[in-house]
Amino acid sequence: MLTAKELEDKGRQALAWVDERFPLSVLYKTHVSEYYAPKNFNFWYLFGSMALLVLVIQIVTGIFLVMHYKPDASLNAAGVPVAFASVEYIMREVPGGRFIRYMHSTGASMFFIVVYLHMFRGLLYGSYRKPRELVWLFGMAIFLCLMGEAFFGYLLPWGQMSGWGAQVIVNLFAAIPVIGPDLSVFIRGDFVVSDATLNRFFAFHVIAIPLVLLGLVTAHLIALHEVGSNNPDGVEIKERKDEQGIPLDGIPFHPYHVVKDVLGAVVLLIVFSIIVFFMPEGGGYFLEYNNFMPYDQLKTPPHIAPVWYFTPYYSMLRATTSSFLPFLWLLVALIVGLTWRGCSCVWIRRACLLVVAGAYWGFFGLTLFGFTKPPFDLAIAGIHLGLGLDAKFWGVVMMGGSVMLFALLPWLDRSPVRSIRYKGVLYKAILAVFVICFLILGYYGTQPPSPVGNVVSQICTILYLAYFGLMPWYSKLDKCKPVPERLTWK
Amino acid sequence: MSDHKQEALAGESFCACSADPSRRALLAATAGLGAAAGIGAAVPFVASFTPSDRARAAGAPVEVDLSGLRPGEKLVVEWQGKPVWILRRTPEMLAGLKTLDDKLVDPGSSAAEQPAYVSGEARSIAGKEEFFVCVGICTHLGCSPSDKFATGADSGMGEGWKGGFLCPCHGSMFDLAGRVFKSMPAPTNLVIPPHTYLSDTRLLIGQDSKGA
Ligand code: HEM
Ligand code: FES
Q1: Whose CA is nearest to atom 9 of ligand 1?
Q2: Which chain B residues are Cβ-neighbours of A390 within 8 angstroms?
Q3: Which candidate, A267, A325, A464, B74, has a CA 20 to 30 Å from the CA of A27?
Q4: How many A×B Cβ pairs under 8 Å?
Q5: In whole angstroms, what is the distance from residue A344 CA to residue A346 CA?
């Protein structure tokens, strides 16, 4: 029998053996036990570790689902698509299969809830600002991958919403001028959403995107640990260190923040279990009812809407009609005008000129040069149509662009302070309006198209864009409060 | 700051060695060839994304028996993986088509994708106005519109509704000749596939009419 002392020695020897060959202790120290994070982390700082937890849940449940799932659109002996039937098989016949599937489908929604809140924290505390631009950009890349992952995964059960959802989204790419139609065939691997599409989406969903996602999460955390976390005060703790070079307002990640994160994980798992056991369909928002019917290429269900986490952007797509475009150009003109007045950088000014010149050529140029009579007017209309620069194209630009706008935040925010705690009423009001618009857009995206919904979505779309587009000006105008030198906490 | 980073900053470049300039050409050539090989290797992978020969070959013409189709009824058949509708229009339905010109984007179907041998507001082969053959896929983003054949106020589509189709996805409306109404997301009229009548009751979809 070894005594406790001997056992400890053995352990130390083993660790030393590893450390000579792999920097285990060093890694543990730099990233866990001697990684100093601000001591005033609050509720909003739980969502990063929660996102990691959900990622693990998705990967583990996903692996087990793949053991029974079959990516095959052909019909079985009963006339049901094999993929659809394999999901029903998991739900009804595989022991425990129902829970594994519900965990995975609930996990997808939880992932977006957690990540949206995680990103909102960034808006609250200015976490994207220098020197955390890359933390933020890696985050954006993660967000895009997550959207792709959700989209590809949604085709796999091969239900009515799967098929028609994929049909609509892939057709969005067809709106891109010149290459669009070929591109959509290239994405589908067929002229319609078919078995070829299902198989490639399967490959993307189970291996390609998850690999990229894991790489990006690693990069996200490496970047974060290089610059250190921001905090609810937006004060840089690294600016005040003790003699050993440890930030005065920092505490080691382990055990202090780990304990907090574990509490967060427990709460998350409680909520997660309640959903999985008592409301796995999430009222039709997490699993849509129409998706319990196999994909029928000949009949679109009477009400189709994407899953809730895509609906804000889906609303913006629908809101971009030809009668809405003039309002959009007005906003663009306002932003370009303000940029020209307020910015002396040559390159930005040149970009402004380019936008103005492009718009001028597009709208008036050809007309002013006297090409107004037939056949020239037809030719001009033809060029516009031929290039595909219609509302459909701009709708697609809107949908993609409005997601990407988040990536510009580090350069749009000119406020002298980072955190909302020291920002003035102006930013608080604007952020509130932005959040409300986002929620309204999300709501209307779940509803069938209606005239009222359309006008409201258009107003919200403009306000959404203005939040980003006008940030360089309102963030400077805002009356901010003085920022303390050290963190505040009770 | 960790050690390796200090080293990297200490040297001017990432390479700690002093390079022998005479080896530069060799390096460049190796990199160039490597890049070319990389691009070459990517070709089959990119190509594998395009439709396979089997997918390209699918799409044989489909024959439809019209004998059971009564006026006012619609038949859906699958052609090239898409729904093709055959609607047998009543005289009232056909009369309604003439009254809509000012509400439509393209009443004459000049920008529509349709074979040369279909014409008129009915968008059908001359003498076969009764039958409306079209690909039941919305020209916006590809959903399949639903039937809205009831007319007038109780159709739920407005007072002057003469019957037509409503796309469930973003609300595009079409008349009974698949012509899109103004200010809808769908830019153009529904597509009409190549088709030809083999006899009075036999229709072949996917093959052009000759001589018409
Ligand atoms: C798979 C998804 C993600 C995972 C696993 C993840 C993980 C984490 C973790 C563990 C942290 C540190 C704890 C915390 O501050 O909450 C963090 C911080 C951060 N994340 Fe993420 N993240 C994800 C997605 C995103 C996205 C989509 C964005 C924004 C576009 C983002 C932006 C940030 C920023 C700016 C910080 C630093 C916050 C601060 O210091 O105030 N992350 N992330
Ligand atoms: S797909 Fe028909 S209106 Fe959009």
Answers
A1: A48
A2: 187
A3: A267
A4: 86
A5: 6
Mind listing the domains of chain A with CATH numbers? 30-304 (1.20.810.10), 305-490 (no CATH)
- Measured from the alpha carbon of residue B187, the closest ligand is 2
pLDDT tens by residue, A288-308: 999 999 999 999 998 888 999
Ligand 2 atom index nearest CA of B145: 2
What is the pTM (predicted TM-score) of this model? 0.89
Q: Write out chain A residues lying below 8 Å of B187, CB-based.
A: 390-392
- Identify whether the C-beta of residue B151 lies closer than 8 Å to the C-beta of residue B162: yes
> Which residues from B are below 8 Å from A176, CB to CB?
none
Atom 38 of ligand 1, nearest CA residue? A127
3-state class of A250 per DSSP?
strand
Q: What is the interface pTM, i.e. ipTM, of the complex?
A: 0.84
Q: Which burial class, exposed, middle or buried, applies to A181 when counting CB atoms under 10 A from its CB (0-12, 13-18, 19+)? A: middle
Residue B65 β-bridge partners: B202
d(CA B174, CA B167): 8
Residue range A360-371: mean pLDDT, rounded: 55
pLDDT tens for each residue of B24-80? 888 999 999 999 999 999 999 999 999 998 888 877 899 999 999 999 999 999 998
| pLDDT tens, residue by residue, B147-157 | 999 888 877 78
pLDDT exceeds cutoff 80 at B16: no
- B170 annotated active-site: yes
Distance (Å) from the alpha carbon of A169 to chain B's nearest alpha carbon:
8
Binding site, residues of A? 104, 118, 205, 220, 225
Protein residues whose CB sits closer than 6 Å to any atom of ligand 2: B 138, 140-143, 167, 169-172, 185-186
Supply the mean pLDDT for chain B: 87
> Which residue matches tokens 């390079």?
B19
**Would you tell me which CATH number, out of the four given (3.40.50.300, 2.102.10.10, 1.10.8.100, 2.40.128.50), belongs to the domain B61-205?**
2.102.10.10
Query: Is the pLDDT assigned to residue A388 strictly greater than 60?
Result: no
Look at residue B13 and tell me whether its pLDDT is greater than 60.
Answer: no
Q: Give the residue, A19 or A490, on which the prediction is more confident.
A: A19
Q: HSE, CB side, 13 Å, CA atoms: give it for residue A263.
A: 9
- How many angstroms separate the CA atoms of B82 and B144, rounded? 9
What is the edge-to-edge ordering of all strands in the sheet holding B74-79? B74-79, B82-88, B131-135
Atom 1 (ligand 2): residue with closest C-alpha?
A: B141
Q: CB A297 to CB B55 under 8 A?
A: no
Q: Which residue of A has its CA nearest to B78?
A: A298
Model confidence band, residue A42 (pLDDT cutoffs 50, 70, 90):
very high
Which pLDDT belongs to residue B197? 94
With beta carbons less than 8 A apart as the criterion, state whether A287 and A281 touch. yes
